[in-house]
UniProtKB/TrEMBL annotation:
One of its GO terms (biological process) is establishment of mitotic spindle orientation. Residues 735-746 have a biased composition (Polar residues). Residues 718-746 are annotated as: Disordered. This is Ankyrin repeat and fibronectin type-III domain-containing protein 1. It comes from Capitella teleta. One of its GO terms (cellular component) is spindle. Residues 140-237 form the Fibronectin type-III domain. PANTHER family: WIDE AWAKE. Residues 781-882 form the Ras-associating domain. InterPro entries: ANKFN1 (IPR039269), Ankyrin_rpt (IPR002110), Ankyrin_rpt-contain_sf (IPR036770), FN3_dom (IPR003961), FN3_sf (IPR036116), Ig-like_fold (IPR013783), RA_dom (IPR000159).
Amino acid sequence: MILSFSALFGAVERQDMETARMMLDSNGLDVNRVNDDDLTVLDIAIMSNHVPMAKMLLSHGAKENPQCESILTPLADPFSYLWRPFNAKYSRRVDHPLTLSKHGQTDKQFRAKWLNHMDYRLKLMRRMKSGYDHAQCPEPPTNVQLSVSSSSSLLVHFNEPNHHNGAVVTRYKVEWSCFEDFSVIAGEQVIDDPRCLQYEIPDLVQGNCYYVRVSAWNVKGFGDPCPSCPVSATPSSWREVSGLPPRCEGKLNLLDGVFAGLQEIKTKEGVEKSNQNGVSPMPPRKSTVRKSIKNLFSSAPKFQKTLKRGVYLACLLCSEDRILVTNEDIMPIIEVDESYSSASLNSDFHWLMKISCNWEDVKSLRREIDKSTSAGVMPFRSKLLQACSQLQSVLGVQDLGQLHHSPIRDSDGSVVLIAVNYIKDPKVVTSTHVKWVSLGKVQRRVSSTVEQSESPLAPESLLSAVPELLSYARLSTFSLNRGLYLGYLKLKSSVDLIRIMVPEALPNVLPHIKIRDCPNISKEEWQWFRNLTLNEMRCPPTPAQSDFQSLLTSACSNLLEHLGISEDEGVSHRLYDVEVIELSEDVSFLLLLPPVEGVCSVPGHQEDTPAQRALQCLSLPVQVFEMIHMSTYQREHLHRFCRASCALETDAHLAQQAQREAFSSEEVSVAKQRVDKLNSLQQTLDEAWKGLRWTLDIIAYARDKTLRGGLPLSILFAPPPSPTDSPSISRKEATTSANDVASSTCSDCGYHSDISSLDSQRDGAAEEAAPEEIWFRACRQPGILRVYAAYETGLARGTSVKLHVTPKTTSREVVNLVVQQLNKAVLCRGLQAPVYGVDELRDFCLVAVIGARERVLRDEYQPLQLQNPWTKGRLYVRLQANLLAAIEHGHVTTV
């Protein structure tokens, strides 16, 4: 190790990058060890001005020696500084000039070698001193970006300086203040790891404005700071706009309270029964197993070798590349019920999924259920728990794992429920009735066995589904990286279930695409989002809002393309605008919803696009999706809910049975009180669970035909202009070439003003025909309309509005949008001009004008359906009574 350490110093001193890289990659060296001069390898690389070497060392965790600056002081006379060690060693050999050193060298040879070494060190130190003298403080970091990460923190990102000025940057300093001139520093943080180019500023005051700057450090000290962009930000959250509390807030205490209340009822009931019998309550006696020679000859478990009509429970345990099978090389399968008669397993399957969150409660729940003597679901659930208990006992594992998302069935009526679990230590399974077998070996054996098997659900055939079962169990536990995502909701209905579309690669979340790394949406961003939804844009968006719009628009386009949804279909989709779905502190979702009519596919309709089929999406029942989703992102909430729900459901069933069997009035009264208490606990539990279940709220919102809420993508892609007019243009500019007019119009957002009068347009109709045609064509791309105002608005003459519409948008909707937008422009500018109310909108109509002809479009007509030659003209909104507003003369024809 000492030789490797010296060799690393030698490679750095010689500036041998390849040797140094090889040693850093192959040896576990301490890169921060100091040499005889109290210098680390990074100190040498920095002061030698070898930036690539320094960066490579930094990437391997190298750090500077804090005493480096004090060491450099004696280097003003490096020769005398370096000669002292030599004099000390040489003086010890003066009395014995002919003695041999420990390496067999005479003193003369040693002296020559030492002089060469000192000469080398002297040159190295001179080079380091020269590098240190010529180095300067680094330039400021570049691209310093500031964003709001939560209601009490800000996140700053930055890049390295363009120039390190002779010495590599090894640390950064982030400062924040409530004053723009930083006269009072609210806090600072030095980042010692130069690879970390971001910092989250914690513990800030919500609502305060903070200014942030970042500076870089090298051996010469800190350079000039660089202010962030934007220069300031305010810690905030979208909840300040919506006023909605977090879904998980207080839910753990609520769930614990329900379970504690249930235990209190049980304890009180036990005390009352003991008092009635005249026996003091005794603590539960610990069960003991009487050991005898019979235990050595216990019967083998009844694993199923053949499957007939009935319900079975199987367990798939995996450890690395091995799975657990019986001695007959089949999956461990226990019979549950051979005479199960219910038409659907959905409710019992979902109940078993809740049991799988708390396998340790199997025995206690079974004891409670066995007290029931009534028919219904309890006998079958008792058999389910018995099968679970048998598997736990035989395998020696309490946690059987997660249930596969759906039972496996065949045409003969056999149903297999499969639990899958990954075992870290295979030694925990000590049963002699099972063994660990390589997965590859099992698959090779199965490939030949399946062809000979008559039943598709033969135990040997089930092993062929092992890769799929293991893949689902593994992928359903993965969580997304930190960030804000855009998800897509798509439902499929069947006879008894509503299913939700999820990707096979990550079945615990909706199909999604990442918007950005910061999961928080600030108050400023959400206010813009809500104003856009409510059509209340009163001022231009801020830089932060514009950036958010750009990211969101890009994410929507990419997600639609990823799902194979065309642009024409995409503009009819909408964004969920009630809340941001916060899966955890690090993962948040915005949701993209199809039109109300397309949210849910009915049986018999295949609406999956080729892209969706290529993505290999699954359709999971909503309850199953919620279980695996919350098992990943709210695991503790789910486990406590399942524990309370299973116990409460069992006790409620027993209480109702006791109420039915009660004879005396006293028994009836006691039973009724117990049922009422349990119903109250059930109501509390349902409220807590409803608050956690965002999925059902989204589904109800998306399918509500009366609400039809959300932000349409047509508005997001082409938002309404802020109520300001663009500057007027001259007549010369109005008669520019067709290409110039087309390009300026397409890039124009908002209102367009043209000072040329209608009379001059009519007089010069021939000259301006070409520009008019291109004006209309340029803006008549699919989904785009430019509509001019032909009535008294109080705004500049020739004002127009550009709209992004769908093929189903009607003329009446276009008229209403144009009049309302121009009303807002008048109000915001404080003009003395008429403002038209909702009851006056029916007085306006939409007309198409080309040359000297005009066509009035019916209210239900869809403007994008216009055909030639009308596509070469312009669209106007005018009062129905003013026939000559859009054109002075012409024939009026109803389309």
